[in-house]
Amino acid sequence: MWVFGYGSLIWHPGFPVAERRIARLTGWHRSFCMRSIHHRGTEEAPGLVLALDRAEGAVCDGVAFRVSPGAEEHTLAELRERELVSSAYLETRLPVTAGDEVLECLAYVIDPDHVQYCGGLPLEEQAQIIAQATGGRGPNRDYLWNTAAHLAELGLADPDLEWLSARVRQLTAALP
């Protein structure tokens, strides 16, 4: 069983991993397009979390994780509890390219018809939200910074996340 990580799964998979591979998913992009009302925000003050948003010609570089043999059933249950908490994600299987091999990976993509979907927000608006939101798993900014740092460690460029990281650092430095 393979799982595609593009956000927090990269730095916190939460399941036993037998193998990791840098992988590319085509037709989708990593985007702060989901309002977070549980993990990185609240219903009163939603944060933003990453999701795979479908887009013509887009690509998303991330990590394909092979679940340790024997842990597939438990991993699937844990991922569903973590990722499907508000039904804004859709569980699907998508082909990703890892080197010269195509792997079918479990992936969680945004439901563009869900009330939490907010694709197309300007980067400045995203930064303003992320700088201030906090949810059950902590400040929204930590989620951004951890994801951006781990992408950089892997050599995976994401200009939007890099810009957001720098801008949110500016905004939070100015907070009382």
TrEMBL record:
GO terms for biological process: glutathione catabolic process. InterPro entries: ChaC, GGCT-like, GGCT-like_sf. The keyword Lyase applies. Signal peptide: none annotated. It is an enzyme of class 4 (lyase). The keyword Lyase applies. SUPFAM superfamilies: Gamma-glutamyl cyclotransferase-like. Keywords: Lyase. This is glutathione-specific gamma-glutamylcyclotransferase. One of its GO terms (cellular component) is cytoplasm.
